[in-house]
Amino acid sequence: MRTQIFNARTQKENGTNLGGRIIRSGGLVAFPTETVYGLGANGLDGEAAKKIFEAKGRPMDNPLILHIAKKSDVKQLWLHIPENARLLMDAFWPGPLTLIYLKSELIPAEVCAGLDTVAVRMPEHKTALALIRAAGVPIAAPSANLSGKPSPTTAEHVLEDMDGRIDMVLDGGSCRVGVESTVLSLVGKPRILRPGGITKEMLEQVIGSVEVSPSVLAPLAENAIAESPGMKHKHYAPDCTVIVAEGSPRQAAGSILREYGLAEASGKRCIIFATEQTKGYYRGKNYVIIGDREQPATLCANLFDALRERSHGVDIIFAEGIPTNDQGLAYMNRLLRASGFTLIDE
Q1: 99, β-bridge pairs
Q2: Residues 6+ apart with CB under 8 A from 326
Q3: What's the pLDDT tens digit per position in 42-82?
Q4: Residue 293: left if φ>0, alpha if ψ -120 to 50, beta else—which one?
Q5: 152: buried, middle or exposed (CB in 10 Å: 19+, 13-18, 0-12)?
Q6: Residue 208: how many CB atoms within 10 A of its CB?
Q7: What is the DSSP string of 155-221?
Q8: In whole angstroms, how far apart are CA 314 and each of 269, 286, 307?
Q9: Going from the N-terminus, what domains does the chain have, and what CATH number goes with each?
Q10: What would the pLDDT profile of 152-204 be if each residue is shown by its tens digit?
Q11: To 10 degrees, what angle do helices 83-92 and 200-207 make?
């Protein structure tokens, strides 16, 4: 298969119109969103959705998210729209928030992994919205990477994994948020299944108390059912070992420097993911600054790019843990899963 590439900034109309035709005919199109690049197929066609799993090597028990271009499209996808969903849609759509509720009969089993719920979001990115409108159907889309690898935040990342596997890539430049959308289940008490750019604190300002699933910062049991993408199976991992150091900035740096020295002495090639506040600890070592601990959204924006770009020729990535308030929860969720929950402390 030859993968076509369109620049969504200079060839937007041609690219999105062709992409829409490909989606309608059962093909696969990678497209930019404000979070990461998605790999899209017709969300109402089970056979088209299967192609997503095949292209990614994605386990079939990992549900997909339906992307829509207007809020009213939810009416055909859910049994009904609960009041707290209306409040959240008004507050955060379009944007990086996915809502899960009871599915309608239109939803193929392949999209929801056989569950009685389906995840829906309205992306903010203009190219994503134009593609959905051109397709005329909800677009089912996980991240556009091989299963288990870091999610793509540029078209170049998509092509690293998907060239020759999919029909088309719409190149819309770098993604702003850098991690996938927040996933909130509205079945029963509102519960975050995957954290993202829309934080627990922001959600609670709109609908009151929100729970966080224990699996956000801990592995989900292999025999457990994944209610959302990102809960089960290995995720976000580069082709090297990732180790996370817990504790205060000083403690984390001390643990990293100790383990870095041991690894280096054994012939391992290492790199440290530092923050603006801790870069001084690592003078003379191989490190890269990936953001500001006091602004965790900056860490989220750079994490996947760093995992891809900085892992070449490296055996071990050492990274600091941060507090899990605000976007820190999303950052730690991705970092811990990238490491396979491999932790060190003082």
Answers
A1: 120, 184
A2: 199, 201, 296, 297
A3: 999 999 999 999 999 998 889 999 999 999 999 999 999 99
A4: alpha
A5: buried
A6: 10
A7: HHHHHHHHTTTSSEEEE----SS-SPPEEEE-SSS-EEEE--SS-HHHHHHHHS--EE-GGGSSPPP
A8: 5, 10, 11
A9: 4-216 (3.90.870.10), 241-344 (3.40.50.11030)
A10: 999 999 999 999 999 999 999 999 999 999 999 999 999 999 999 999 999 99
A11: 130
Radius of gyration of the chain (CA): 20
Is residue 330 within 8 Å of residue 195, measured between CB atoms? yes
Place of tokens 């922001």: 202
Dihedral sign computed on CA atoms, order 232, 237, 239, 240: negative
SS3 99: strand
Average pLDDT over every residue of 288-316: 96
Listed in sequence order, the residues at least 6 apart from 72 whose beta carbon sits closer than 8 Å to its beta carbon are none
Task: Render the burial of 55-93: b for 16+ CB within 10 Å, e for the rest.
Answer: bbebeeebbbbbbbbebebbeebbeebbebbeebbeebb
Non-local (6+) Cβ contacts of 69 within 8 A are: 122, 129, 132, 133
Question: How far is the C-alpha of 252 from the C-alpha of 273, rounded, in Å?
Answer: 11
Environment class of 28 (CB within 10 Å of its CB; exposed 0-12, middle 13-18, buried 19+): buried
Residue in this structure with the two tokens 């996980």, named with its chain if needed: 142
At position 47, the amino acid (one-letter code) is E
DSSP 122: -
Residue 19 CB-half CA count within 13 A: 33
Residue 62 to residue 226: CA distance in whole angstroms: 6
